[in-house]
Amino acid sequence: MKLKDASIDKIDLRALDYVFTYRPRVAEMVDSIKEHGILQPLVLLRKDRRYRIICGYRRALAARQAGLKVVPAWLCNEEEMPEQQRLMTSLHEDAHSRAYNDIEKAIVLNKFAQRLGWNSTRLAHEVAPIIRLPASPTVVERYLSLLRLDDEILRVVAAGTFSVDHALLLLAIPADDRLTVFRLLTVQTRASLNESREIIKNVRDIALLTNTSVREVLANEEIASILNDSSLGPRETLASLREAFHKKRHPTVAEYETKFAEAVAALGLSKSVAVSPPQSFEGSHVGFSFRASSKEELRKIIAQIQEKLATDGFDHLFDVFKL
Amino acid sequence: MSSNSNPLFSPDAVFVDETVSSEPLVQQILARLDGVPRCVVRGDKGLRAKLEDAAGSIARQKKHLFLAGKRGAWLKRFRANECGDTVEQYYLTHIHGCPMDCEYCYLQGYFETHVPTVYVELDELFDAVREAIAQNPEKAKRFHVGELCDALALDHLVTLSPPLIEIFGTARNATVEFRTKTTNVESLLATEPNENVVVSWTFTPANVAQAYERGAASVQARIDAARACQSAGYRVGVRFDPIFRSDTYDEDYAELISALAAALSPDRIDSVVLGAFRYTAEMERAVRQRDPGTRLFLDEFVRCGDGKFRYFRPIRLKMYAAIAQRLRSVWPAVPIELAMEPPDLLQTFMRRYAVA
């Protein structure tokens, strides 16, 4: 390799074979270059009388914006630096100078897979540790699949405001409907990871059950009225949506839950008494729990329960479980 | 219902663990698979290294066969509360996996590969079975052959059934159940039956079998095979497990029960077992990963105390009741049992449908 001044105009800034940067920001670097110039040379590959960037993509962009005509660069040809070495050189230089965001990690893995044909096991052992990922083929495959998502989603993952786990949930939604669901989970409801998991599963299953698209499920009159209700905050929208999806997805379960809730309400017990059905209505044992801060309070609760036992209110409650 | 036997399984490649390559059963199986490519590998790791990790490899793996050395127990015992009865229940672990590819199979996600694997030191298995039979002889025991595999899918290669039938012929208080979806009963029919042997079939309505049971014999072919076994002197088990809810399940089971009643003699039926479809979270993940559009989990399933998902209780009890009533109308005296249900539901059911 030779150190020379390379003409900026000869650098192909659209050839990103060895570039792992996602949506580079160079404004600060432009100012620095104007003041100090480029202190660390780029590494460029000579090809077809032009240069391809191996190391220094952001420096090249910033240098162009700063008005430089030439940049210092180590120049090599294909024989001097084989393909694998080019990728590794780029990777190691980045790894020493900055941390990758999650999308850039996915880009790194994808470039090694595409250009070298490495499978997820080899990527896990030879690349993942360098970019601070566990040496696991499963993790590698999860990161690779991130790149199937829309750019709007990738941007928030790269910014760290939407987790990788959250984003990967969206892969279960058909591509055409993905952004609609993404906006529902973020702007409209601010759903947590588990809440998102539940919503995505229910929406997808309702679409399959009704032979409709996810978009049509969300356009359903009841769902649309919740989404369009401007009086609701994100968490209230979320609660209403979850309930509506649950009723559509599990109508019999919801029917029994309603019957139980109505029977409990009809008893008119004080708020210090909690009545709960068995988990998933498996079994017939109803749970009762009291909260009392004095003997007198407890006596009142017990008296109220004894009074209700003389009516048929408890019969209605236990009848919910008669099969 | 058409009568289509499933063809005898013939793998497209046989892998042999180097530690058992000289075992007599290996030689016997390889001789029966003359012309099938074979490859000696070093243990499970060696097998996995040979398998491609491309998408869709499950179906391809199921066309292979692995002959391996056993590590771990040949017999395992069911937890008592899973069976809901006082009989000691064991299952044999001599084969892992199955060449059939039922969409609802609980073995998905069980093992590291999907290659049907035969553990070939069968003399050790027979010793373990004899030992278990001999322990606490006053206690009733049942041994299940088709828990981690189909009991008969590989019987033309492994020929396990004749020696097992012979062992149970002299057993006191112990029965063995071969559970299958195949028509591979030649070895059974060539063996003298005894009262301690039950050959059972999983029966589903024809539309369910066609939708979900890839590679299994048709329902009518299974009924024909069950009739042949009854005629040869075997007791037969009828297993409606899994049961799926559909708009037509009641009529579908009416038709199935009618076909069974026409073919089988009730006094040679060991029992009917009903089991509504259930699954683990791991299985759901595996099936959805393979087929994101699967309709298998679209009904109203809830998570139960044991972590498995089952139909919401009122739904499944209604299905059990409907099917049990139809069974009682044709077989008033055949015992009906439920599979993998909690004790309180078993009691509710048995109060209504126990044999008088």
Blueprint (SSEs and pairs):
The complex is a heterodimer of chains A (323) and B (356).
Chain A: E1 2-7, E2 11-12, H1 27-36, E3 42-47, E4 50-55, H2 57-66, E5 70-76, H3 83-97, H4 102-116, H5 120-126, H6 137-146, H7 151-159, H8 164-169, H9 175-188, H10 193-209, H11 214-219, H12 221-227, H13 234-249, H14 251-267, E6 273-276, E7 287-290, H15 295-309, H16 313-319
Parallel strand pairs in A: 2-4, 3-5
Antiparallel strand pairs in A: 1-5, 3-4, 6-7
Chain B: E1 13-17, H1 24-32, E2 38-41, H2 43-50, H3 57-61, E3 64-68, E4 75-77, H4 80-83, E5 88-92, E6 95-96, E7 101-102, E8 117-119, H5 122-134, E9 141-144, H6 155-158, H7 161-169, E10 174-180, H8 186-189, E11 197-202, H9 206-212, E12 213-214, H10 219-232, E13 235-243, H11 249-263, E14 269-276, E15 278-279, H12 281-290, E16 301-303, E17 309-311, H13 313-330, E18 336-338, H14 343-353
Parallel strand pairs in B: 1-2, 1-3, 3-8, 5-9, 9-10, 10-11, 11-13, 13-14, 14-18
Antiparallel strand pairs in B: 4-5, 6-8, 7-12, 15-17, 16-17
Total number of domains of chain A: 4
Structural class by secondary-structure content of chain B: alpha/beta
CATH arch. level architecture of chain B: Alpha-Beta Horseshoe
Count of DSSP E strands of chain B?
Answer: 18
Helix and strand sequence of chain A: EEHEEHEHHHHHHHHHHHHEEHH
- Across the major sheet of chain A, the strand order is 1-5-3-4-2
The quaternary state of the protein chains shown equals: heterodimer
Low-confidence segments of chain B: none
Our count of helices of chain A gives: 16
Whole-number average pLDDT of chain A? 95
What value does the Rg of chain A take, in angstroms? 30 Å
Query: Major sheet of chain A, described briefly?
Result: 5 strands, mixed
* Outline type of chain A: elongated
| Major sheet summary line of chain B | 8 strands, mixed
Please estimate the helix content of chain A. 55-70%
Our measurement of the CA-to-CA distance between the termini of chain A, rounded to an integer number of angstroms, reads: 82 Å
Class from secondary-structure proportions of chain A: alpha/beta
Percent of residues of chain B in beta strands? Answer: 15-25%
Distance between the termini of chain B: 33 Å
Low-pLDDT parts of chain A are: none
